[in-house]
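Predict structure. Chain length: 329.
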Amino acid sequence: MNVPDRLAVGMYRAKLPGQHCTEPLKARNIELTTKETLSLTERHDVYIFHRIVHHSFIEHIQKLKADGGKIIFELDDDIFTIPKHNPAHKLTLETETLRYCLSLSDEVWVSTEHLKTVIEDEVPGKAIYVLPNLVDLDSWQHKIFNEGEIRMLWAGSKSHIADIQILKDLVEKTNYETYFMGDYVEALSKWVRIEHTNLAVMVPRKDLEHRLKYVDPVGLEAYPETLSALGCNVGLCPLVDEPFNYSKSNIKWLEKTLAGMCCVCANLPPYQAATFKVKEDWVKTVSLLEDEKTRNEIWNIDLDKVKKDYSWQSHRRNIWLDQFERCCK
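Prediction complete.
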């Protein structure tokens, strides 16, 4: 199995499956290896690649297939509908390459049911299987930070720049302490010169600086501990209502729940399993969580769901184990 990057995709779609499936698969006489690079001198029965491979590598995939190897492509995003406001929009230039790779593959693995329907339309007749993103419970604290007033957190990458604009009114119209980790809403910010340099840094606006905080991103190894250490009790999971987001997984809800937050989620396909979703207005919805008992009840319900249905320690690990075994037959 190829480890595509050292970001979330590499973690949830390769490293964690390798970590939790390698030993159990040995009992089924299957050897699973996860690597960032592929040695063309090694021979395997099955090769699992992620996302779009560079067109110059396609001839190697063709050779592996011609030599009898089974080729599987793995996706966790709808590459075909990336909106222009998303920094990853340039990947849409490679959709023909991706479409060819998918057609070349023996089967395709995806992270959500909605993404499966997208790929079915793009590559009709292809065998497509859904393998959910799962979290490792041992990496998280599982303790709610429920004392006192609401302390909100949004955390994510710069690919969510449009999604977080949804939170502008929530921050401006409430008096809650709010943290943005990894990116921020520019309209809530101002530029400040770094002393003795020709550089500037963006910080919260003067009228918000007493309750709006920006947190730099950290590596995935430190992410669970950092998210929990912020001590926030309300996790924000906004999404713009657009086709690209329908295929996303619920990983932000899973992570924030395990970090001790009662989550408020967009009422869109990725978050249908979440307990507390925004029906109309973010300000009114979040205000309902000012009661500590309400926050605690919602968090406990969600934490139970995450543990039972969305973790590697749950029964759903068998979906991955059975799929690895099936593809080797």
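Summary: Residues 105 and 195 are 55 Å apart (CA to CA).
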